[in-house]
Amino acid sequence: MDTLEDYLKRNAKTYPHQVAVVCKDIELSYGELWEKVLDRSTVLKEEYGIGEERHRAVIFRSSQDIAFLVNYFAIHLAGGVAVPIESSAPDAMVSDLRETLKDKVFPKEVADILYTTGTTGKSKGVMISHRTILAEAENLTWSQGFAHDTVFIICGPLNHIGCLSKIFPVVYCGATLYLLEGMKDLNAFFHALDYPCTKMATFLVPANIRILIALGKKRLASYADKIDFIETGAAPIARSDQLEFCRLLPHTRLFNTYASTETGIISTYNFNDGRCKESCLGHAMKHSRFLITEEGKIACQGDTLMMGYVDMPVQQAAVLHDGTLYTNDLGEIDDEGMLHIKGRVDDVINTGGMKVDPSEVEDVVLALPGVADCICVPALHPIMGTVPKLLVVMRDGKVLDKRAMAQWIRSKLETYKVPVIYEQVEKVKRTFNGKLDRKYYR
């Protein structure tokens, strides 16, 4: 059992009628899913010329449906590297990526390449191994209690590690996935919770938790005896939201997890333990370890670490060496050996689990003739949590058209990078040497 697909094949043979995935009220058993994966892998071998000796990348847009799962597993089975990308990525960006990767042959151990802005905001292709996928599957299974009868709801983008990683323990245990297209439709989320089973679980970024607390509090509480556990992560969760979540779901295990694309799934803490420790990320999982450097930064070790970056040896060497991944997260370890996060060193805006490079947004905005200056900063939204905010200085007395500005940015960047809040200002604060003074706006 060297790959996740080995477990998928086992499930198809051991319990072929077990429901593997539910999407838009369509159910697919493990036997049916495996047959689709087999058929798709044959097509991929011919279409992309991949195989044992031609371990090439296959780029495909992320989608919240059964087709994503079939593609993802089939690429691995055919001997390729899965490269899921943001569904809203501009066509030009996709074309550039295809051109960059088309002639590359990767080591057989590489399973996925996940593109992330990372801690510096620069787009990096993070190589994930098959070994890492199985280590993450076991980390989550044993630490959070995934089981064969778990029905796990995924409502976030599958090209990011936060949600993609939940596929791993589900297949490892032969459990059931329930796929949703985001959290914009709360009725669809609650409809998923009505699925006929006894044990449900999900992953929600803090912004989604805030939405549920604000708009669906009573209805969420009605499922308190059915929800086995909920994991959150990707961004800090407010203390008030932690406490309210525990009050609404007193019998549910609520996990705060430390993970990133580069480190993999490292630690987790059930904050519904009666203490609800703020900023706590728990003990290291079976295949992972963490430590704090002299600078106070979190460093990680173990089988869940990335293999490296695609064609970025300098950046890779700066963060990964001697079996240790050095992050830009500040942290500390308490007397119980549990990890606590204390913030980030960099200026990247973490919104709903997505990392936004503010300079990338600013570059797009400054390309408009009517814009004199701008800065993209993090701001708190009453429902969505941390979101990008754009402050704009217009030229020649012009008035900022917020709608047009948003449409312009959306035509150039992925949807999650588009600022939510816009404000026209007379000037942008800069340092004495002309740099944007980001600290001033924190």
Question: How does this structure look, described?
Answer:
The protein starts with a helix and ends in an 18-residue tail after the last strand. The protein is 32% helix and 30% strand. With 442 residues, it is α/β, with parallel strands linked by helices. Strands 1, 2, 7, 8, 9, 10, 11, 12, 13, 14, 15, 17, 18 and 19 form a 14-stranded mixed beta sheet that branches. It has helices at 4-14, 30-48, 66-78, 91-101, 130-144, 161-173, 186-193, 206-215, 217-221, 239-248, 313-319, 358-366, 402-412; strands at 19-23, 26-29, 57-61, 81-85, 110-116, 124-129, 151-154, 176-179, 200-203, 227-232, 253-260, 264-270, 280-284, 288-292, 297-302, 308-309, 320-321, 324-333, 339-344, 349-351, 354-356, 371-381, 385-394, 421-424. A hairpin with a 5-residue loop joins strand 18 and strand 19 (339-344).
Give the DSSP E fraction (strand runs of 2 or more residues): 25-35%
* Count of separate DSSP helical elements: 13
- Tell me, briefly, the overall form: globular
Tell me about the largest β-sheet: 14 strands, mixed
Count of distinct strands: 24
- Mean pLDDT across every amino acid position: 92
Distance between the termini: 48 Å
Radius of gyration: 22 Å
Q: How helical, in percent, are the residues?
A: 25-40%
Oligomer: single chain
Low-confidence stretches: none
